[in-house]
Design a protein that fits this description.
This protein has 686 residues and is mostly helical. Among the domains are: 147 residues, Neurolysin, domain 3; 64 residues, no CATH class; 152 residues, Neurolysin, domain 3 (Orthogonal Bundle). It is built from 25 helices and seven strands. Strands 3-4-5-7-6 form a five-stranded mixed β-sheet, sandwiched between helices. A two-stranded antiparallel sheet has the order 1-2. Helix 1 packs antiparallel against helix 3 and helix 14 runs antiparallel to helix 17.
Length: 686
């Protein structure tokens, strides 16, 4: 194949170097990976084998310049494999994942390269480098050291085997989960079975069934987490039970998509690798290079929260049981005990009784286009002065994905933002942000970021009405996008969201704040039929109910975070043979084994920790929320939604990317370290 025929062989000439998706075909990926591996290793060899004295420029900066072809194809391919997979992408990912792990090891375990890095590191104080360059040297040296660069050759060979095997297993876990999630979607013959869903939700279910060739039926697809948005509305208790049981059975049905053996093998291999690298367990290995530093620090924080969360969940359960008993008595029907599939349904009834708020009834006010333009975008314009223009002339990777150009108030460019809103069988569950092109001045690269959500798509011509949680998710993921768009760095390594994993959720959580900020909410929450703005008394009640059901939400999250920690505090000599038994004991040990409040992710569908890069790091969400809650207090203390506040937050935090220690950046923004009290108050744990 001639070089000019492969779009990955040179930087794109499109605006912002947007990948030329219209020209990219399946046959381009493997040759681009092949060339990318070859070129990158040749560049690294040139650095490692140089006879010149090691300097920042000929070693560290040279490393940052290397690997352009591989970066271009990898960003596009892995975005495609997660958002629009196919048999082709699945097969290629299974093939590429271990090779990519081997490629990374070939660089990080290169003794000659490590020797040069160490030399630059030892001389960094006298080299006349600026602060960002010094920090780059320190980060690269730390990461190479933790990756095993100093091991003996025999141990390096073991490490390579572990890394390649783990890359294969985690890829297989994700593919199994997607396949089993699709297989377990529930088919219903009539709308009556789905009583309680809105017309829009029923239309989306009918459209989903039609796409699978099931005309006249209704398909309820599963979401990534244990529960389901429809559980709050469905009146048929048996239908709710079927959805919950289908969700909880994913990856554990004894079929070809069963993930239990993978969970055991992944955790055992991670423990062995950690021991090889000198750590007691995988959690210790991971947290050593996070802001938490140790799993003991994580345990202390989560342990402080868990008892209060469990207590609050029990109190909430008592309220729900009382609601159930009253309803059954009024109907003259037998009472029943609260189950997991009842929680969301009766929570809405209690919420309505206590606060006169029915979140399901809010959907008509949350039309997706209005939420996007007059909510998410409008908040960013007010806080940061940026504007958005849709670019239909720029082709994205899927017809549903839309491209927007983002500009500063003075018209200067910020980057491109791509939104891929709708669910499809080819998209993995959940919601996320990906970079396609990451800003840095060393290579003169701009910024292109992608947000993926999984909102059911209605039939053509009908509005997309978002749930309350989906609105929150859109604001959250856009916070990640802003982090990626605003970061201004010299070196690719520090671009966008390339920060410590237990800090990366902080900016996205802060952006959630604007969802219920009165002047933002009233701007986008407009009834899609009547044009009526959401009434002020509804806003007031939403604000009053903002901490409602926090016992449940905190408990289900903490259960998953502590389960993740339990799996990754297994030592090399610990033997685990039963996934369900291990999970049950882990939850019982921390007092979060309430059957009515299942863990947000059970082990066999815990994609974050077994395929998503959050292994021993799912605690990051609440760890970051300490900073988030403290930041919300700062905004409130300083006048709220103002450009001055936004500019400070952008300049001192979002714009920093990874070019300085994130906690130092936080101190620069806040004037002190974060305190936990605002988080405790927000979640009702004080």
């Amino acid at each position: 194949m001639a070089d000019t025929s492969n779009p990955f062989f040179a930087p794109s000439t499109l605006p912002y170097q947007l990948p030329p998706f219209a020209d990219i075909r399946d046959e381009h990926y493997l040759p681009a990976f092949e060339r990318g591996f070859e070129e990158h290793l040749a560049e690294i060899a040139g650095i490692a084998d140089s006879a010149d004295e090691p300097t920042f420029e000929n070693t560290i900066a040279a490393m940052e310049r290397a690997g352009g072809t591989l970066e271009r194809v990898a960003h596009v391919f892995f975005n495609k494999s997660s958002s629009d997979s196919s048999d082709f992408t699945n097969e290629l990912e299974e093939q590429i994942a271990p090779r990519l792990a081997a490629h990374e090891d070939a660089i990080r375990l290169n003794s000659a390269l490590y020797s040069r890095i160490r030399a630059v590191h030892d001389a960094r104080a006298e080299a006349g480098l600026d602060a960002e360059s010094v920090y780059l040297v320190e980060r690269i040296f730390t990461e190479f050291t933790l990756a095993g660069a100093g091991l003996e050759d025999a141990d390096k060979e073991k490490l390579r085997d572990y890394n390649q095997r783990l890359s294969t297993l985690t890829t297989r876990f994700e593919k199994n989960l997607l396949a089993d999630t699709n297989d377990l979607a529930l088919v219903f013959d009539s709308a009556e079975e789905l009583d309680g869903l809105s017309d829009g939700e029923l239309s989306a279910a009918a459209e989903a069934a039609k796409e699978r060739g099931l005309d006249g039926k209704f398909l309820v697809t599963l979401v990534l987490f244990t529960g389901h948005p429809y559980l709050a509305s469905l009146t048929d208790r048996d239908v709710r039970r079927r959805i919950m049981e289908a969700s909880r059975s994913r990856g554990s049905r004894g079929n070809e998509h069963d993930n239990r053996a993978l969970v055991l093998e992944i955790t055992a291999l991670r423990a062995e690798r950690a021991a090889l690298l000198g750590f007691e367990n995988h959690a210790a290995y991971v947290t050593a290079d996070e802001t938490a530093k140790t799993p003991e620090a994580v345990a202390a924080m989560l342990g402080r929260l868990a008892p209060a969360a469990a207590r609050n969940a029990r109190a909430e359960a008592a309220d729900l049981q009382a609601q159930i008993d009253a309803a059954q008595d009024a109907a003259g029907e037998p009472r029943f005990e609260l189950e997991a599939w009842d929680w969301a349904f009766y929570t809405e009834k209690v919420r309505s009784a206590k606060y006169d708020v029915d979140t399901a009834a809010l959907r008509p006010y949350f039309e997706s286009e209005r939420v996007l333009r007059d909510g998410v975008f409008a908040a960013a314009t007010r806080v940061y002065g940026i504007t958005f223009e849709e670019r239909p002339d720029l082709v994205a990777y899927h017809p549903d994905a839309r491209v927007f150009e983002v500009s500063n108030e003075d018209g200067s460019p910020v980057g491109l933002y791509i939104l891929d809103l709708y669910t499809r069988d080819s998209k993995r569950g959940g919601a996320w942000m990906n970079p396609l092109i990451s800003q840095n001045t060393l290579l003169d690269q701009p910024t292109v970021v992608v947000n993926n959500l999984n909102v059911p798509k209605p039939p053509a011509g009908q509005p997309t009405l978002l749930s309350y949680d989906e609105v929150n998710t859109l604001f959250h993921e856009f916070g990640h996008a802003l982090h990626g768009l605003f970061a201004q760095v010299t070196y690719p390594k520090f671009a966008g969201t390339n920060v410590f994993r237990d800090f990366v959720e902080f900016p996205s959580q802060v952006n959630e704040m604007w969802m219920l900020w009165p002047e933002i909410l009233e701007n986008y929450a407009v009834h899609h039929v009547t044009g009526e703005r959401i009434p002020q008394d509804v806003i007031d009640r939403l604000q009053a109910a903002s901490s409602f059901n926090e016992g449940f939400s905190t408990s289900e999250y903490l259960a998953a975070a502590l389960l993740d920690q339990a799996w990754h505090r297994i030592g090399v000599h610990d033997e685990v043979t039963d996934v369900a038994a291990f999970e049950a004991k882990a939850l019982a040990d921390v007092g979060l084994d309430n059957p009515a409040v299942p863990t947000r992710y059970s082990s066999t569908y815990f994609a974050h920790t077994f395929s998503g890069g959050y292994d021993a790091g799912y605690y990051s969400y609440i760890w970051s929320e300490v900073l988030d809650a403290d930041t919300v207090e700062w905004f409130k203390e300083n006048g709220g939604l103002t450009r001055a506040n936004g500019d400070r937050f952008r300049e001192r935090l979002l714009g920093v990317g990874g070019r300085m220690d994130p906690l130092a950046a936080y101190r620069d923004f806040r004037g002190r370290d974060a305190v936990i009290e605002p988080l405790l108050a927000r979640r009702g744990l004080n």
